[in-house]
Amino acid sequence: MAEIGKDITHAAALLSEGKLVAIPTETVYGLAANVLDEKAVLSVFETKERPFFDPLIIHVPSIEAIEKYATFEDERLKKLAHTFFPAPLTLLLPKKNIIPDIVTSGLAQVAVRVPNHALTLELLKKLNFPLAAPSANPFGYVSPTEPEHVQKQLGEKIPYILDGGKCSVGLESTIVGIENGKICVFRLGGLAIEAIEKVAGKVELRINHSSNPKAPGQLKSHYAPKKNLFVGNLNELIAQHSNKKIALICFGEKKFTDKNFLVFNLSEKSDVNEAALNLFRFLRLADESEADSVLCEELPETGLGRAINDRLQRAAAKI
Ligand code: TXA
Ligand code: MG
After folding, report:
1. Within a domain: residue 216?
2. Which residues surround ligand 2, an ion (CB under 5 A)?
3. How many angstroms is it from 237 CA to the middle of ligand 1?
4. In a shared domain, residues 31 and 169
5. Which ligand is nearest the CA of 28, by number?
6. Which residues are bridge partners to 174 per DSSP?
7. Is pLDDT of 178 > 90?
8. CA–CA gap between residue 117 and residue 19 (Å, rounded)
9. Which of 41, 44, 49, 57 has most ligand 1 atoms within 8 Å of CB, for mutation?
10. Nearest-angstrom CA–CA distance, 58 and 8
11. Which atom of ligand 1 is nearest to the CA of 172?
């Protein structure tokens, strides 16, 4: 199994040797490798069993560091960077030649972010290369928000998990880029659209729901538990599954009398940020429970509620 600890010097030494280390971020845990070491990057894809057409996000400690690896051609993206970083935000920028093609799956743009986690920022400052880091889960499964989640699924394949505690946001970063001169969101995530629009003006959504997406990583079925998951109006779902053992993932003040229900409340006080924090942990617990099926309530489409609903739709979709 992987060693779990808080030793940044050890993590930095492993990464410099081309090894993989799981790192904490405010969104989810990442499976990190030296961006400039193609062999190390290759082993990220292998370890996750991730298809090579799905490119990786690179993590840097500052905006100055971004400019070594990519160019800010668009002022709106630059403004977003200066307003928010470090933050649960990823920008798609024209890449410089120093970034190996394997990182971007051959695309001309690279996805970059400055994560908002003290330990990982300290680690990034120690290194003379950025870290390529997809979420530290097997491809297609729920993302990890605690060191133990990584240990359970990838612990036998990696030497070290840097322990930064529970993630403080709990949803992957929001991905923003430019298409035909328009500012577009390619993945809903931990930074709400409302916050982005206040800085950059109206954005367009390019959220792909097909099962053969042009933009990789937006596969229809993703973030998925193994059990059958149903998303929608909770009372209707309960009526349809009345004779089964069910796990309920709900939101807001709720009372259930049926003792056969295993209830997970995302936020009793109807706070979407608290719901984001709990979502992936509850999906895992429901998946590990004895329930036959998992029923999940849709959240209001405000703030992080939109990103949560997006993850739930993908988790419920079958390929
Ligand atoms: O919050 C996060 O973004 C986490 C933490 C670890 O930073 N990382 C993460 O990585 O969610 P991953 O690999 O699970 O998701 C990355 C997404 C994928 O959907 C991928 O297709 C997209 O980013 N992406 C990466 N590079 C891209 C590029 N050059 N152009 C378009 N999309 C890209
Ligand atoms: Mg992922």
Report:
1. no
2. 135
3. 32
4. yes
5. 1
6. 89
7. yes
8. 21
9. 57
10. 19
11. 1
